[in-house]
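Example S7 (structure tokens).
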């Protein structure tokens, strides 16, 4: 049986579910801590026990991305590939690829200084949503409703002055119901979807307390999610979709190491099983 390795930097419910399912399916399965793994430019694949395929599940985007680069250097099959992880982990790259491949997505503005960002806000009008170009769980995502709020955010960014603080990602605020849709694609299939609802914030992250509700996978949802997956390179992905009152379904984010414990509660298909089987099939092609 194929050997499955799951790389982590923090073990969450999802990693435990994947490990348990891989063992149940009869695979030689091991968990590998990225934080304690050492790789160098002289390393060879046979110096490690990376099995037949690695499922990269690091919480840290940058740790997982660079670990994936090392795995590909060693010619170890890894899900997802470096290119996909890079495309999905950077919201600006995601938005550009979605638009380039004609996937419906909210209008998004990019500025490379605080002055230019404020000019965009004054020109386009409030509110716009500001997001850090990397990050998850809704952290740093805020609705800029007026100039005072925008000035305060700019001040904070200029004080911290990190390299990513200088890149401003501003997105139109979509008129939608108080929910969004999280769909999981495995290869070119949508295997599960849920509504994430929230009553006390425009954010709908499960990590922030949003409630998962089963969502029917309509042809429209399937088409837009598969198209979005192809735009960033495919693999195992979480596609975040909003129901725009004017334009229909629009994709606003794509997740590379998607969390699925909430969705697993309402999904009809076995999510970890689908992921394990896809990873193995990808490795032996």
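Recovered sequence:
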């Amino acid at each position: 049986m194929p050997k499955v390795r799951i790389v982590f930097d923090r073990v969450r419910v999802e990693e435990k579910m994947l490990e348990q399912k891989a063992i149940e399916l009869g695979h030689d399965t091991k968990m590998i801590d990225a934080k304690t793994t050492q790789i160098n430019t002289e390393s060879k694949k046979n110096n490690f026990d990376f099995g037949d395929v690695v499922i990269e599940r690091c919480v840290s985007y940058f740790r997982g991305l660079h670990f994936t680069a090392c795995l590909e250097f060693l010619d170890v099959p890894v899900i997802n590939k470096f290119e996909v992880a890079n495309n999905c982990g950077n919201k600006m790259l995601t938005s550009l690829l979605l638009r380039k491949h004609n996937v419906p997505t909210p209008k998004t503005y990019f500025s490379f200084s605080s002055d230019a960002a404020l000019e965009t806000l004054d020109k386009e009008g409030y509110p716009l949503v500001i997001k850090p170009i990397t990050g998850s769980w809704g952290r740093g995502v805020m609705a800029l409703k007026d100039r005072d709020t925008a000035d305060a955010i700019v001040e904070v960014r200029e004080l911290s002055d990190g390299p990513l603080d200088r890149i401003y990602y501003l997105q139109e605020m979509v008129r939608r119901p108080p929910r969004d849709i999280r769909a999981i694609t495995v290869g070119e299939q949508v295997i599960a979807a849920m509504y994430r609802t929230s009553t006390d914030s425009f954010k709908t992250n499960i990590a922030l307390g949003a409630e998962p509700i089963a969502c029917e996978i309509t042809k429209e949802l399937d088409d837009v999610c598969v198209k979005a997956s192809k735009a960033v390179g495919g693999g195992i992905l979480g596609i975040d979709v909003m129901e725009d009152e004017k334009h229909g379904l629009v994709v606003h984010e794509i997740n590379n190491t998607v969390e699925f414990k909430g969705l697993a509660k309402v999904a009809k298909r076995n999510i970890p099983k689908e992921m394990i089987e896809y990873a193995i099939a990808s490795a032996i092609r």
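Notes on this example. Residues 147-160 form the longest helix (14 residues).
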